[in-house]
């Protein structure tokens, strides 16, 4: 598990389950600038892409132990980014977007043109063929469609929802889930077709509260882990539109979730989660058992991702 924190550290955490004994290994991979790491993207080839709130964007090659990052930082806040198969990155800042390209081995550069969008996009989703992308803003009700033509992004249109978006998460099969301000969860295809609707929990409805989906992670195409504003993590089976299990242990909003799907691990059935207080938990999804808990005092966990 790769962890980014609120003071710019990126760490590696490993759990070893040999001989029925659990051992925890934590290694500091590198530190960048003292600003929070707000996003991590890990690849199977050992690359860790990272972004921080002061505009730093880069990658860490875990095999070579080498860090590459952009030089143009500090002018505006980096909100989110997406990495493509060719390791090109589209980065979204406070009011514009920019493409970070790989020119040759271990050499990246920003495209000269900034696309001023006038929106603070918090979520980006690219289709499987990487021909277009969707963007949206936190607590907005509009989803923008962009065409990808080489190194250009062209706005193709937008759709409006009746509810406000508080989270968005896609999977590898062109599906994505939206959590809204009412506590409802929707699953769409990236082409705009509504696949599933899961209304808010009856218990919270009766209490006059909305338990919002603030984070999510997919396990395959049919199982969805939904991180709630209450601290619960619900496992939803989309084949029957039911919540089949849940994890409890966080006392506040679950801000990040990731699921391990690497069958080569000693325990491939792991779920990692962190909350807005910066606490980290790792779970065994088969028996809902908490395997690891870390409460930090000098920093907060701000992003997580399985390598």
Molecular structure report:
The structure is a single chain. By secondary structure, the chain is mainly β. The protein is built from 1 helix and 29 strands. The protein has one helix at residues 202-206, and strands at 2-5, 9-16, 23-31, 37-42, 47-52, 57-61, 66-69, 78-83, 89-93, 96-104, 107-110, 115-116, 121-126, 132-137, 142-149, 152-160, 165-170, 175-180, 185-189, 194-198, 213-219, 223-228, 233-237, 242-247, 254-259, 270-275, 280-284, 289-294, 301-305. Strands 8, 9, 10, 11 and 12 form a 5-stranded antiparallel sheet that branches. Strand 8 (78-83) and strand 9 (89-93) form a beta hairpin. The mean pLDDT is 87.
Question: Secondary-structure map with pairings?
Answer:
Layout: E1 2-5, E2 9-16, E3 23-31, E4 37-42, E5 47-52, E6 57-61, E7 66-69, E8 78-83, E9 89-93, E10 96-104, E11 107-110, E12 115-116, E13 121-126, E14 132-137, E15 142-149, E16 152-160, E17 165-170, E18 175-180, E19 185-189, E20 194-198, H1 202-206, E21 213-219, E22 223-228, E23 233-237, E24 242-247, E25 254-259, E26 270-275, E27 280-284, E28 289-294, E29 301-305
Antiparallel strand pairs: 1-2, 1-29, 2-3, 4-5, 5-6, 6-7, 8-9, 9-10, 10-11, 10-12, 13-14, 14-15, 15-16, 17-18, 18-19, 19-20, 21-22, 22-23, 23-24, 25-26, 26-27, 27-28
């Amino acid at each position: 598990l790769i962890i980014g924190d609120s003071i710019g550290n990126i760490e590696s955490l490993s759990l070893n389950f040999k001989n029925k004994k659990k051992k925890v290994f934590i290694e500091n991979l590198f530190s960048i600038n003292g600003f929070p790491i707000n996003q991590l993207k890990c690849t199977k080839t050992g690359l860790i892409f990272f972004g921080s709130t002061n505009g730093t964007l880069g990658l860490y090659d875990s095999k070579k132990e080498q860090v590459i990052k952009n030089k143009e930082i500090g002018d505006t806040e980096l909100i989110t980014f997406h990495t493509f198969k060719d390791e090109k990155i589209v980065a979204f800042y406070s009011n514009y977007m920019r493409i970070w390209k790989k020119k040759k081995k271990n050499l990246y550069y920003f495209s000269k043109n900034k696309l001023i969008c006038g929106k603070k996009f918090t979520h980006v989703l690219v289709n499987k063929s990487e021909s277009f992308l969707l963007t949206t803003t936190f607590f907005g009700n509009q989803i923008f469609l962009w065409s990808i033509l080489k190194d250009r992004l062209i706005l193709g249109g937008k759709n409006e929802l009746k509810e406000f978006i508080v989270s968005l998460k896609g999977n590898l099969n062109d599906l994505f889930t939206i959590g809204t301000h009412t506590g409802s969860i929707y699953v769409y295809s990236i082409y705009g077709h509504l696949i599933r609707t899961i209304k808010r929990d009856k218990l919270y409805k009766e209490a006059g509260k909305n338990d919002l989906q603030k984070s999510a992670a997919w396990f395959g195409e049919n199982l969805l882990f939904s991180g709630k504003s209450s601290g619960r993590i619900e496992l939803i089976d989309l084949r029957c539109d039911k919540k089949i299990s849940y994890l409890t242990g966080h006392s506040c909003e679950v801000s990040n979730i990731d699921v391990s799907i690497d069958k080569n691990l000693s325990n491939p059935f792991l779920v990692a989660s962190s909350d807005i207080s910066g606490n980290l938990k790792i779970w065994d999804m088969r028996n809902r058992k908490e395997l690891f808990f870390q409460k930090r005092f000098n920093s907060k966990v701000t992003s997580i991702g399985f390598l």
